[in-house]
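Data deposition worksheet. Section B asks for the primary sequence of the deposited chain exactly as it was used as input, without tags or linkers unless they were present during the calculation. Section C holds the resulting structure in token form. Section D is free text for depositor observations; keep each observation to a single sentence. Incomplete worksheets are returned to the depositor.
Section A, Depositor: J.P.
Section B:
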Amino acid sequence: FGEITRLLERIDQADIVSGYRANRQDPLIRKFNALGWNTLVRVLFGYLCRDIDCGFKLFRREVLDHVNVVSSGAMIDTEFLAGAKARGFRIAEVEVTHLPRVAGHPTGANVRVILKAFRDLARFRLRLSRELRAEREK
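Section C:
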């Protein structure tokens, strides 16, 4: 939380400021999974940010008035950022410190979590297309 000032310094330049983990302190398999996920998201939605799933995000309240997030799992950051970008909100990025996990167990390599994320990604892509079409028709 001590790095919030880094995000605050950029909020005048964008609607969302998204952190990216510098010198990421994760095991190799987790880095590999993140690379694959980020690549897939870029193919489907274009470039959103360097590190989609970094938890450090600061955004204007207005974004929530226009972006409907229904995901509760691995897709939440992707849904939020892709929905915001599709509606013209600007995203800036800042480097944040990443510390190694010292407690708990990661679920990112769990097959069920991965399959649910892929299913949710496909559903979101379709939902976003329908939402944007409906917004244009208004």
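Section D:
DSSP finds five helices and three strands in the chain.
Residues 111-137 form the longest helix (27 residues).
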